[in-house]
Queue: 2 jobs
Job 1
Amino acid sequence: MLSQCSSPSRQQPSHPLLPAAENLKGWRAKSDPRTFEGEDLFVYINGGADIYNEYGFKSVLVQEYEKGEKHTVILEVFAMNDPGAAYGVYTFKNGAKGRKVPWGQGGMFEDYYLNFWQGEYAVTLTALDDAPQTLQGLEEIAEAVDARLPEAAPKPGLADALPREGLIEPSVEYMRGSLGLFNALPLFADCVFGFTEAVKGDYREGYSLLAVLYSDAAASGRMLEELKQRFSESTDYNDYCSQEDGFQVKDRGDRAIFAESSGSYIILGIRNPNTSAAESSLNELKRNLESFAL
Amino acid sequence: MTMAKKVSRRTFIQKSVDLGAASLLGGLAASGAGCAGTEEKPVVEPVDIAAVKGTNRFEITRRAVELMGGMERYVPRESKVCILANAQKNNPGTFTHPEVLRAVIRMCRQAGAMEVNCLSWIPRDRWISTGLGKVVDEEGARLKIVDMKDETRFRSVEVPAGKKLFEARIMETFYEHDVFINMPICKDHVGNRFTGTMKNLMGLNSPKSNRTFHTGNFKNDNIEHLDQCIADLNTVIRCDLCVVDATEFIITNGPFGPGELNRPRKVVAGTDRVAVDAYCATLWGLKPEEIIMIDRGHKHGLGEIDFKKLRVTETV
């Protein structure tokens, strides 16, 4: 149910995660905060709710702030089911073109918005205008909200499996379902991938690596066989070549896509044309996955 | 195919010819054959897709519709017009720009529409916060908000061609109108990578029905369900004209953002929703044939996916 958090005075926050007025550097609550829980996320953001539900969503706290009559910032604090879900939402919403900010366990400022995460919370701040004062307000409010969040919690171990050499850090995406995977790497939309979790990262040398965890080796083996069949039969891909534990194929853009199973994992790589790198990173990823205590 | 209440299509087209379509900048004008008292004007050959680029959203919208033959071609005098604009959220690049809506409402009124109504189950506060509500008031149109939770306000409509969706629930008030103008903003969508004219029609369908388009568990269901449902929905709603805000929109984290903004500065108009969506998808490098919804719409016979086969005008 949508709940209204009434406040007798807009100067004092009515929610424990909202900063006190004196910490907001002149920003003031424009209206009462709102909270959307569970299914009501669809009321707030319609079809945009799917990705949050896929990661594991509990509630979102929404508060608008204003400074003067022309400057507005929207704060959204997503409470997810666990820190991994919050981290995943953060990596999903994060782009690769922004600059790091020091709040939370990771944060990025991009154009007119700012994302960061801490523990089970993923925070987004949006400026509704591009005035310097409003953009500065994103950081002012972020700092104040950061101080209200509970302690940090470890991000999913799988996220650290990606080799660090050459990794474009903001490109890392942690996924928990097909929707996240489809947005990171659009493959077969009619395929139910049915995995537990996955992580993808892009590398400066022109390739990407993706590790997908299944419940066990039998499950990853079955999915690999399905992928082999799909890629070999699809007219969208060519030069299919079966290998001992996997396969390689090319897409219409002449990118090489290779996949192999490694225990409970399927490892995929996408290599741009004219790039020969990836082999050593791939081997390092396999070693990292083998040494993981999940 | 179920559609808004209409005057005879043949009568409408003849009246449009008699009245003449609006004249264009640069000398294009419409034929006024057979109507006493009107000046003779050159025949307008409307294009299939008109994409106009510029910084003045009102003017480029007006121009795009003129290239489509003018609003009189689609709006008979004394007709009731409904418009479906996108007012979902006030994040930059996520809602139909107010000046695009302003232009369309004004052109409808100048064409002689008796009523121009913006239909929505989006709450009024979104219309206010996006500035769209103000434009509706200023241009003499009406905002008709349907309570999204009142299923009695929606009509059950069978979807005979449906492959995933077999019954739609369309706003009852939609059927009180003669003309329907679809006015989405094209942008990214996390569910299927693209939203435009076809997906915008979910704004006429009840949220309860829309919820069935989104499967609850992507661990066990596939992505294409949403796209097929959208294509199915489109088989029971006819759009007389699509006017797409492609001026500034998000290409990540759609549909609500915030996300990376793309600024082609275009308004795109057309009557072939599949072709219009296909064109708009290319504005940020997407391949129309890879957008399942566009492909399924094409397979339903709703339009041409290879928009280059059509008469496309791109101008500034």
Job 2
Amino acid sequence: MQQDPKIVLLIARDIDTGDSIRTSLEQSGEAYHVVHETELHDGLERMAGGGVDLVLLDLDSPDGGDLLEPLTQVLGRDASVPVIVLSELDDPAAAARAVSLGAQDYLVKGKINGGVIVRVARYAVERNRILARLRELDQLKSEFLSTASHEMRTPLAIIREFTCLVRDGVAGPVNTEQQDCLDATLRNCDRLTGLIEDLLDLSRIESGKLKLSRARTDLIALLNQCQEDFLQRFESRGQDLVLRVDAGLPAALCDGDKIVQVLINLVGNALKFTDTGGRVTIRASREDDFVRVDVEDEGVGIAFDEQSKIFDAFVQIGRTDGPGARGTGLGLTISRSIVMQHGGNISVESEPGCGSRFSFTVPVYHEGTEFDAFVDDRRRIYRARNRVATLVLLRPAADDSAKIDLLERIRSRAEDTLRGRKDEMLLVESKGILACLLESDRTGTLSALGRLRGTLPAIGIRPEEIEFALVVLRPTEARENPVDPREIPFESLAQRPERSRAGRQVLIVDDDEMVLGLVADILRRSGLGLEVETTMSGYDACVRFGEHEPDLVILDLHMPGVDGVQALASMLHARRRQARFLAISGHPERFEEVLGLGCTDCLAKPFHNDELLEKVNRLLEIETPTLAGIAG
Amino acid sequence: MSARRIMIVDDEPDIVKAVAMRMRWAGYEVITASDGVSATQIAVKEQPDLIILDIGLPGGDGHTVARRLNDNVKTMSIPVIYLTARNASAEKKKASELGAFGYFTKPFKPEELLETVEKVLSGACVPA
């Protein structure tokens, strides 16, 4: 069977090197087709065209500069294509760096022959295929888990609530025995909820995806809240919960929600293992550069040989009777992960018969460190998701006393227009910047900044008053490089061009997957630089429209569920900017109706690519003399 | 005093049924909606005294509905309590910014929900 040839892009200045590699590959008996570009930027352009299966990159360049810079650029263009680098430099450190940046292999030019190239190429392609599949599976698993968790809460809530309704007599009188039965059901509903949350936490931790959102946190407030929340349970058992906080306790740098989770775990355990009438003490103090929290109980204590195992998963010690019954054995494991991800430590001191003391530490907050934590936490997330993200830093052009105020005013505007996720913004007062993270590449981010610029006059700010800087965070990059706002070049927002044609957003809505893919393809390959998003559901389209209004919506009028016309009407009603609407349908009879509702234009199916593009051009007011660059 | 009317918005029919049963038993009248679009329309038309709102809705999520209700003079003073499976603090923050009077996650304790509903309707509450 004739195999499709693999396209190998060879980027090398030297013609002889190029010829010799091309010969080796094309005469190997394996189907390779080599494209040789002598200039890096030509190579990058060729990659943009797609279809490249492997890149062979000669790092040596007469221009000097960082050896691995071309590698970074190639990977930045498309991190999914395997790259093998070649260099005269026989340096294991350089080779290690290249691989850690994402190269599949590092070949030393003086030490290879044709056979080596062919072998290395074959393995690189194969390895890359496996990696891509693994990433895909990992991604699927995470998405499944997070969807499943979310999905499980609703049926659980329903079971619980109907059980409650019957128990409370809402559905008719119940006798005491029936009430007891239902109480048992309810208790186990609650256990189930806890179990699900724990299991999901654990799986997230194990895949390294525990999402931390660190910020300056007042632990005293957290501890007070914790005490308040537990008060009733303690009182009902005649137990005491005492809080002892050192004077002048500094703020901590941590994820408040996660630390609360740790506290609930430790205090809950203390409660479970302490007899009635006993006391649990929570202490908070400063220990070097950390804040230390101790949870002490006067309970049964833990045997010495079990103390080392207690943080392991699914290990449970001691009482299997009594209130609270058996847990999952995951609470301490999760707590340990959380604390360690913060850079802290967790430990236990215990003596059987006397009680136990669980202690954990979290770093003290130092001014400015929340920015590094912010960048770091998010880098981790996007790296795990294998997505490119861009960090945008905004600061006032003039360094005056009102700068924080200016940033606050921009902040809410930025939340809408920069399309950042709701919790992806951070105002770092100490550095005088507003940082936000967008899940897009440089082009997408610049276009979003253009949008932000357009909305500033409405809040009385001139673009000249703001400067911005971009840092693209690529998943293949080593995590180590800290971002220092003082060392990144800032530009004036006034210099950003008005919303350019490139970056216009189009949302396509069609329940027919083939049509959807086809239309998206036509638009993406049109060379118009459009940002295209798709959905098969009218409901989803309305939701997305409400969250962020695109420039153009192309929708099919006939879809199940929310019918296209209804979705159209809903979006027209929700329109705040000037989104245009293009209705497509196999039944032109409905066109008059939708045009009457306010739809901007219509297109009858079946249609030709040119017709679609012509309409899109017109609706987005793009003047193109020709429709060159259209595929197919 | 005529019965107070509560509107329950959730795309999950069993949730609507369970919460409606609980509210009616407590003496309230109940109207319902199962998507963002009709929730807004019905709220404007019927002007209930309180709305119990889910976030994950077709046709515009709960936050969008809350925002639209805030923008409409007929509905801007109707208190909203969130009842949702989502527990992220970002969602709670958003709800609070939109003026929610309460935020309950599923599974929820019906006594707590009822208590909050009663407090809000008696005017003794300020937004969370």
